[in-house]
Backbone:
């Protein structure tokens, strides 16, 4: 069983993570050579978006679980 947001201790839950606001991926990369005043160089390694935000890992997992349920609902509705 993979860990869910409910299995996290409060300390684990509050751990900050960077994620992509476009596709919700945690595959955030940093391009050190292209940084400027408005951009710290971080971008999504999955979709290439530079819309990166930081949140608690527990909140990220909750959102991921919500999206996973949604994906399953869509799959079931096709049956
Ligand atoms: Zn992305």
Residues:
């Amino acid at each position: 069983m993979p860990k869910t947001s409910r299995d996290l201790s409060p300390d684990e839950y509050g751990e900050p993570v960077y994620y992509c606001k476009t596709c919700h991926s945690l595959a955030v990369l940093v391009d050190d050579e292209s940084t400027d005043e408005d951009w710290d160089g971080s971008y999504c390694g999955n979709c290439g978006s530079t819309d990166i935000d930081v949140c608690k890992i527990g909140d990220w997992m909750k959102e991921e679980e919500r999206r996973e349920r949604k994906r399953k609902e869509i799959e079931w509705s096709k049956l």
